[in-house]
Specification:
Two copies of one chain form a homodimer. By secondary structure, chain A is α/β, with parallel strands linked by helices. Chain A has helices at about 1-10, 40-45, 65-75, 100, 115-120, 120-125, 185-190, 195-210, 220-225, 235-255, 280-290, 330-335, 385-400, 455-465, 470-485; strands at about 50, 60-65, 80-85, 90-95, 110-115, 130-140, 145-150, 160-165, 170, 175, 225-230, 265-270, 295-300, 300-305, 310, 315-320, 320-325, 330, 345-350, 360-365, 370, 425-430, 435-440, 450-455. The first copy, chain A, folds into two domains: about 45-175 and about 330-400, FAD/NAD(P)-binding domain (3-Layer(bba) Sandwich), CATH 3.50.50.100; about 175-330 and about 425-485, FAD/NAD(P)-binding domain, CATH 3.50.50.100. Chains A, B: Belongs to the NADH dehydrogenase family.
């Protein structure tokens, strides 16, 4: 049980090391000694956070830092629980505004919210932590998750494996962009789900604008470089196309006057664009996008080469920038988990968002779906679903702790209250040129408000501005919108 | 002379291709045809901008987009000249504020100024261009430069070689960080000269802060990961150390409370810090930095390993982040140019910043230095020297054009006016904690104002705020300072 003692030790480490105070101008370097020896390396995989004792605060481990996980952490009562978050990114992305960052309407940092700002206990409470790591395995029998640090190729630290014991585990790992097994998508297309995707799109777009101005390049090549193709006509694809056409009409005309007639946007969709909106709004969007110069093409992508797409009818579409936004599905890791599954391969949950057949595991957001046995449909992969589930589960867990069921395996007898019910609040999408769609009906058949145009755009902007998590970012989003309006988008390729 | 005709053709290409207007919902894709054939590939290296004719506007080609090149472009009379800039980056970096971006006091975009904002003609005038490319050779006999596109590993376009004819050539290629041939510096240390360096530092610092919180990591390793070492005690090294200690004292204490006692900054300098400032200011800086927790170590670096530095006295300094700011020297490309050289290997210029023995070539900024024959010393590699030279040369070239000497080989008989004289306006450096040094004397021996403390800090901030090139960035710098003061620095690792 030597390793278990190390566990306990580690979880109880106090800041026993006095910080070295500089006492004179040239500090001797003698307090540095050589690095850890081989004996220490051997125990690396064993160390971690040990199970909490009966008198300790129970620990909620949250996997993921998206809408669901962050809303949950925000709502958790940190007097009742220690919160440990494991995620490969230390911030939440305000995804509805991500498309705006690709062309510089907004800055990247204005849509990224550090987790420590969402739940301050994470960065300061003694038993709460954020770990920059990915989860590599879940062990429900031992109430334990296996993790490995994420270092993005930096040589700071060798990959470090550790285990964390949980009292409650919340899986909020989100989903991955679907490629439908089409060859070449992963290698050549850029998704639009993370800040680094938006950064890559912005860098590539600016690169192609500059490369197309190189002397001697053929007309054909110029047109290819400046052909921006978006595959997928959902809200992300449409919003990105709208932003791109705004960028072309306002900024490219001014700042890249030499090549302004060569740049074009094509949106490829197999079915209808914005299929979740009603016919009238869809027609409006189609008209507006076409007016802004976006070419709408109905087609099915068969193959993606490095400089061209092959459609199923055999036609070839050369491109310089390819953005892929055809929808999402569960990640291979989520698929691999030995847990019950909902239709579509998500983690199956009951009406209280619990994963049945195991104790103390919950799943929320895009990675989870109601089990067939609940008789409820799998909810769409939307921010508002994830956020509502995070909020619901935080309240549920707070109630469980209050009733004395915070510890592992101790909540069986506790009443969980009302099950989770999702009420759709409506959908919004901007389509560029100060125009947006707002559909406030619960479903396509229901009655209610649905409108399109400038008023919708004002509603869209106001709604998202108030939804941005922190005051800091709300301020920055407003400042970015203001400077974009006054002096155009920033085109430094940094 | 077939290739020469292509030259002419290319330089006169008009926008003869009508932009395809979308006429119906589903646009046919038939107007895309296959890519350029092999015949075209064969002529690739030949195409470019041909020599201007006697009736054309003369062309100034500027190599580089730093302080010198950008100030020159800003000042050039675009009615008299077409301006062509060749540089691997499409923006100028406001270097005095770069250190502040590493810890998030300022945002990266607030210190980057797109060239098109500095000289709008570049992005819109018919004969003016910006090419994202590096210069690979200068051919003074034919008044021609050889260039190759820069694509950063993107597969957008194969490397593309082209030649540009110039009437006047201004070499403003700047300098490179010196490693003094010390092994391991390039592989393990990060310089602080470009925005991407600052981005790398910020990402690594935040990564290390998070990795050091991983459970089970040894005390030793934790201390190493959070040991930030700065080599070089010039203004850049000192300002970065000051910013870092501000970040530690304000933000790390709050946002990384678990590891706050482990993070330390060490500044290694072989001689004295801030050697260009006077004794009193230097002592003040030393006291303030020490008070802020920066360890000042006098030492000479002998070898840099991936996790530790070896000093010449044999002592080892483990580090998690290593920033190298020991000064600059000419780049290998500048050294390789077959042009006269000044002491230190820079491009040699006369008092009018002309490169003698060749026609119509000028050199300004850190890549240039007075020839020994002028009897003047090589000026220090400072932004203010570069900027003053850019301004001077713009006026000189404008005068030459007015006198009818704008074309290649036509300015021999034209009087150039007063030679360039450099008058040092003083030096400034911030040292953190609302303190700075301001030395307004022309040299260490001269009389004049020199002060340190809060007033200097106000002067420092005001001076730089007014010097930031565009109103947009001036506004953003002020907004960044404000939010940093109110809500701390952003710690999202994006």
């Amino acid at each position: 049980m030597a390793w278990f003692r190390s566990f306990i030790q580690v979880s109880k480490i106090k800041s026993s090391v006095r910080p070295t105070k500089p006492t004179h101008f040239f500090t001797p370097l003698s307090h540095f000694s050589s690095a850890a020896g081989p004996a220490e390396a051997a125990v690396r995989e064993r160390w971690g956070l040990a199970p909490t004792g009966p008198d300790d605060k129970p620990r909620v481990v949250v996997l993921g830092s998206g809408w669901a996980g962050c809303r949950l952490m925000k709502g958790l009562d940190t007097k009742a629980y220690d919160v440990v978050c494991v995620s490969p990114r230390n911030h939440m992305v305000f995804t509805p505004l991500l498309a705006s960052t690709c062309v510089g309407t907004l800055e990247f940092r204005s849509v990224a919210e550090p987790i420590g700002r969402i739940q301050p206990a994470i960065s300061s409470a003694p038993g709460s932590y954020f770990f920059l790591a990915k989860c590599t395995g879940v062990d429900p029998d031992n109430h334990m998750v296996h993790c490995e640090t994420v270092t993005d190729g930096s040589n700071s630290l060798e990959p470090w494996k550790f285990k964390i014991a949980y009292d409650k585990l919340v899986v909020a790992l989100g989903a991955e962009a679907s490629t439908f097994g089409i060859h070449g998508v992963t290698d050549n297309a850029i998704f639009l789900r993370e800040v680094h995707h938006a950064q890559e799109i912005r860098r590539k777009l600016l690169l192609n604008l500059m490369l197309s101005d190189v002397p001697g390049i053929s007309e054909e090549e110029k047109r290819r470089l400046l052909h921006c193709v978006v595959v997928g006509g959902g809200p992300t694809g449409v919003e990105f196309s709208g932003e791109l056409s705004d960028f072309i009409m306002k900024d490219v005309r001014q700042r890249y006057a030499h090549v302004k007639d060569y740049i074009h946007v094509t949106l490829i969709e197999a079915n209808e664009i914005l299929s979740s909106f009603d016919d009238r709004l869809r027609q409006y969007a189609t008209k507006q996008l076409t007016k802004s110069g976006v070419r709408l093409v109905r087609g099915v992508v068969k193959d993606v080469k490095s400089h061209k797409i092959i459609l199923s009818d055999g036609s070839e579409v050369p491109y310089g920038l390819l953005v892929w936004s055809t929808g999402v599905g569960p990640s291979p890791f989520v698929r691999s988990l030995q847990l019950p599954k909902s239709p579509g391969g998500r983690i199956g949950v009951d009406e209280w968002l619990r994963v049945p057949s195991v104790q103390d595991i919950f799943a929320i957001g895009d990675c989870s779906g109601f089990l067939e046995s609940t008789g409820k449909p799998v909810l769409p992969a939307l921010a508002q679903v994830a956020e509502r589930q995070g909020k619901y589960l935080a309240e549920l867990l707070n109630g469980v702790a209050k009733a004395g069921g915070g510890q592992a395996n101790s909540s069986k007898e506790i009443a969980l209250g009302d099950p989770f019910v999702y009420r759709h609040l409506g959908s919004m999408a901007t389509i560029g040129r100060f125009k947006a769609l707002v559909d406030l009906r619960q479903s396509k058949e229901a009655k209610g408000l649905s409108l399109a145009g400038f008023t919708s755009w004002i509603i869209w902007r106001s709604a998202y501005l108030t939804r941005v998590v922190s005051w800091r970012n709300r301020f920055y989003v407003a400042v970015n919108w203001f400077t974009t309006f006054v002096s155009g988008r920033d085109i430094s390729r940094i």
